[in-house]
From TrEMBL:
<dbReference type="InterPro" id="IPR007995">
    <property type="entry name" value="DUF742"/>
</dbReference>
<protein>
    <recommendedName>
        <fullName>Multi-component regulatory system-3</fullName>
    </recommendedName>
</protein>
<dbReference type="Pfam" id="PF05331">
    <property type="entry name" value="DUF742"/>
</dbReference>
Length: 132
């Protein structure tokens, strides 16, 4: 016998213990699979403090609740238990209505500090070969 939990006032998603989430991810994003803004999994997002007029609902509220400080797209997707593409659509909606800001991850500099030490990598490879 499976137990179904209904959505509570706090916006908790519907779950069936055997089947998982009862509302399919594409319904949360209204069938959209492409966000209107570009997001990398490492893109940092943060709430602006503005309350969205058009982006309302429990899923948007849950995402906004996670954006009190800088947080990555990957972290948000993990917390709300949705695929990254659906999370990106929700985040793009929130950016479009001014509720959050997004900052792309900093590019890795090509300076000497970012270069990989070839000798170290070869030592690791040799150690791994010895263990096999």
């Amino acid at each position: 016998m499976t137990v179904r939990r209904l959505r509570r006032q706090g916006g908790e998603p519907w779950y069936d213990d055997a089947a998982g989430r009862l509302v399919r991810p594409y319904t949360i994003s209204n069938g959209r699979t492409r966000p209107t803004a570009h997001f990398d999994l490492l893109t940092m997002v943060m709430a602006t403090g503005r309350r969205p007029v058009s982006c309302q609902g429990p899923d948007y509220a849950q995402v906004l609740g996670l954006c009190g400080g800088p947080v990555s797209v990957a972290e948000i997707a993990a917390h709300i238990r949705l695929p990254a593409v659906v999370t990106k659509v929700l985040l793009a909606d929130l950016v479009d209505c001014g509720a959050i800001t997004a900052r792309a991850p900093a590019a890795v500099s090509a300076g000497p500090a970012s270069r990989t030490d070839r000798a170290l990598l070869e030592a690791v490879l040799n150690g791994l070969r010895k263990r096999l």
